[in-house]
Design goal:
Elements lengths: L1 H8 L12 H12 L6 E5 L6 H13 L16 H7 L6 E5 L4 H5 L1 H9 L9 E6 L6 H12 L5 E7 L7 H4 L3 E4 L5 H14 L6 H9 L5 H14 L7 H8 L5 H11 L3 H13 L4 H19 L9 H6 L2 H12 L9 H20 L2 H28 L2 H4 L3 H5 L1 H12 L7 H4 L4 E5 L2 E6 L2 H11 L2 H15 L4 E6 L3 H10 L1 H12 L2 H11 L6 H7 L1
Parallel strand pairs: 1-4, 1-5, 2-3, 3-4, 7-8
Antiparallel strand pairs: 6-7
Helix pairs in contact: 1-11, 2-3, 6-7, 9-10, 11-12, 13-14, 13-18, 14-18, 15-17, 17-18, 19-26, 22-25
Bound molecules: zinc ion.
């Protein structure tokens, strides 16, 4: 109810206070002043541009007893007609919404002709405003056409539409057509500040701009958004943070934090952040848009197009390919195909999780390899034990490559040292050994995932340059490099033993399928129980 009071309060009360539609107002004003009124109009234009408001004040103006002498500035007029219209008790303006009351419109001709004969003497005109007129059936348009062909003298019909293409030519050709344009941001900003001040609220031009930016050129949207802020915020100052919370505008830290958690395989926290954002009234669009914006900022960061300290931390951790993957997942989301936006967003998070962690480590395949090797390892171990019983020497040298070649190790250490200041230095540390074959440096790894991690980093040209320079400085010559998975069974067997704890952890994570994780997570937030409820809300 409170909403309505504020909304009505700021409705324009005369043609002179219509915002951003100079041409339309000029045409209508002239027709009143020169008494050359058309009987049928089409008001066409985007929603929220003042079509219905203009229709109402036009109807008010043509029935006002003092309009001409006041040069149409009748905001404060208290003549009988204006009083009735201001109190919503006037019989001279009839509003029908074609979208919601087609049945009513079906009987339009009859209704109009019936009532027109009982016009109260004080009013000169009866004005029918048909909202969303493009929704009418062919039958209704035919009925309407009859009225338009022979309009009663005191009848004015205003057809309001956002989609004039759908109105038959026979109708259009009988109406005066007025086109409403989107309202400029600055005009919206000015109006918002004016409204806020009248409601004893402080609204800076900058913060009014935030509201205007989310109103899609619609003054009505902007006013509705401001209303929500005024009603929900008790404080005098409408500050940025409060406005964002009330309007469900996603703070840019949120998608950043969600992706960071996904990269750290904290799916739990990622879901929680998403859930919190939903509780703050963010909708599907605002959340997916916040991810798009993040991808764009990250790419800009990666290619040094700008320096944005807020995403620097994430920017260092993530590769260009990973950013592209996130962007692809987000762009594949289609709001219209989902009835439950929250569920779709959870699926989106899950898909991002899958993509990033597949790129992070092809653990599924390496897991299989490890499984295979595990069985081989057991066999190998048995033979090792047997051998060791024969000769103890093989046990004393479990990692011959590391201990035999001290020089090699120093060079490898030097190489790794080049990356010590970087966030991803730990990835370089996964290089287990190397060999040089002619002009090729073979860097050896024990897990495919380690190779993937480094590949991710050097997919960034800047990192690739660092990498090749470090090779040159370490080995004193231009070497091509190669990443090789070292599948030497003995070597791996030992490696698996030492890495056992870590691998178990990762394997467990990967073995739990994405679907399982999803259902586990989703059920925590009751999204399935609330399915019906959410559907009703949206
Ligand atoms: Zn009046």
């Amino acid at each position: 109810m409170e909403d309505q009071v504020l909304y009505r309060k700021w409705r324009p009360k005369s043609l002179t206070s219509i915002l951003g539609q100079k041409e339309v107002v000029q045409i209508l004003s002239n027709s009143i002043i020169t008494d050359r009124l058309s009987h049928s109009f089409v008001f066409s234009g985007p929603s929220g541009t003042g079509k219905t408001s203009t229709a109402r004040v036009f109807a008010k103006s043509i029935n006002c007893e003092t309009a001409i002498e006041k040069n149409l500035s009748i905001d404060d007029c208290i003549c009988n007609s204006c009083n009735e219209i201001n109190n919503y008790s006037s019989q001279s303006i009839i509003e029908l919404d074609a979208a919601s009351s087609i049945r009513q419109v079906e009987d339009l001709t009859e209704v109009m002709l019936d009532k027109i004969n009982f016009l109260p003497g004080a009013n000169n005109y009866k004005v029918y405003i048909l909202d969303e007129v493009h929704m009418l059936s062919r039958h209704s348009f035919n009925a309407l056409l009859k009225t338009l062909e022979e309009p009663p003298k005191h009848l004015i019909i205003i057809l309001v539409t956002t989609d004039p293409e759908k109105i038959p030519q026979t109708i259009m050709s009988r109406c005066q057509i007025l086109e409403f344009k989107s309202i400029g941001d600055q005009e919206i900003v000015d109006k918002l500040i004016k409204i806020a001040n009248s409601e004893n609220k402080l609204l800076s031009s900058e913060n009014a701009q935030i509201i205007a930016a989310h109103s899609e050129g619609s003054l009505r949207n902007a006013e509705n958004l401001l209303e929500r802020c005024i009603i929900r915020l008790k404080q005098e100052n409408l500050d940025k943070e409060s406005i964002e919370t009330v309007l469900g505008i996603v703070n840019r830290e949120i998608p950043t934090s969600i992706i960071e958690n996904i990269l750290n395989t904290n799916l739990d926290t990622a879901f929680k952040l998403l859930n919190d954002q939903f509780e703050k009234h963010s909708n599907f669009e605002s959340i997916t848009n916040s991810f798009r914006e993040l991808c764009r900022n990250l790419l800009h960061y990666k290619y040094k197009l700008n320096s944005d300290s807020e995403i620097e931390k994430l920017g260092q951790k993530i590769s260009v390919d990973q950013i592209k993957s996130i962007s692809n997942v987000v762009n594949d989301m289609k709001p219209s195909s989902y009835t439950n936006p929250k569920l779709s967003l959870e699926i989106m998070i899950l898909n991002i999780f899958d993509k990033l962690n597949t790129q992070n480590s092809t653990l599924v395949s390496s897991e299989n390899k490890i499984d295979e090797l595990d069985t081989k390892k057991n066999r190998e171990n048995q033979s090792i034990i047997q051998k060791s019983e024969d000769s103890k020497s093989s046990v004393q040298k479990p990692t011959p490559t590391q201990e035999e070649n001290n020089d090699d190790n120093i060079l490898l250490k030097n190489f790794i040292e080049h990356f010590s200041d970087l966030d991803w230095s730990w990835k370089v540390k996964t290089i287990n050994n190397y060999n040089i074959n002619e002009n090729t440096l073979n860097l050896l790894f024990t897990h495919q995932s380690q190779i993937d991690y480094i590949n991710q980093e050097i997919s960034n040209p800047i990192n690739l340059k660092l990498f090749t320079e470090a090779i040159k400085k370490t080995w004193n010559k231009d070497l091509q490099f190669n990443f090789t998975l070292n599948l030497d069974i003995n070597f791996l067997a030992n490696q698996i033993q030492t890495d056992n704890n870590e691998n178990t952890k990762i394997n467990n994570l990967q073995k739990t399928s994405s679907t399982e994780i999803f259902y586990k997570e989703a059920s925590k937030y009751g999204s399935f129980n609330k399915l019906k409820e959410i559907k009703n809300e949206s």
